[in-house]
Amino acid sequence: MLHEAGLRTLAPDQRGYAHTATPKRRRDYGLDELALDVIALLDEAGLTKVHIVGHDWGGAVAWHLASRHADRVSTVTVISTPHPAALSWSMLRSNQALMSYYIGLFQLPALPERVLAPRLYRFYRGSGLPKEHAKRYAKRFSAPGSLTGPMQWYRAIPLSRVRTGRSWCPQHVWGRDDAALGRVGAQRTSHYVNATYRYLEVEGGHWLPETHPRLVADEVIRRAKGY
After folding, report:
1. Which pTM value belongs to this model?
2. Could you give the strand order of the β-sheet that contains 73-79, starting from the edge strand earlier in sequence?
């Protein structure tokens, strides 16, 4: 859909998800490092400024890019993920801590991978991910070892400093039925945003790129083309 609108896209597997880029240490998954991966990709592609789009953990990287590397960003569209400071704020003022209980469990070494790998399909389907995507993702991470990289993103959270300053981010799209990221953090995000900001609540859950691809594409195109 983005190509049909005349946009070029780069959609990398991020570190921990790519077969050839899975560092061992959790410190290698801090947001500074993850954002620098994107900068390195832009440098390799010869791109000075781009439209950044991120969902879930990709959204966290997008927020970081908007704050630390705003000179490389033309627009930012974050799907589902609130500003990190808004998320921290909501932990003490809503049920967000309860919704995020699994993050604490994921801090354990090795055990989460062994428990989750054979149950991934049911987990994905239970969280609202469409069947075809759930099958593909569950197959990709069917072995416990393949989940260690993704788990390191969570294990590195204590090593990543939450940036409380304002980010340059034009829009945030959030699904009202999101089971992982609640309304309080989504609505609080406006306190941490510079520039002209658009916040859109939609009927949907957490997996908006998979369940509402046309809506997501339209929002990206709207912002990229300046209307």
Report:
1. 0.94
2. 50-55, 73-79, 171-175, 198-202
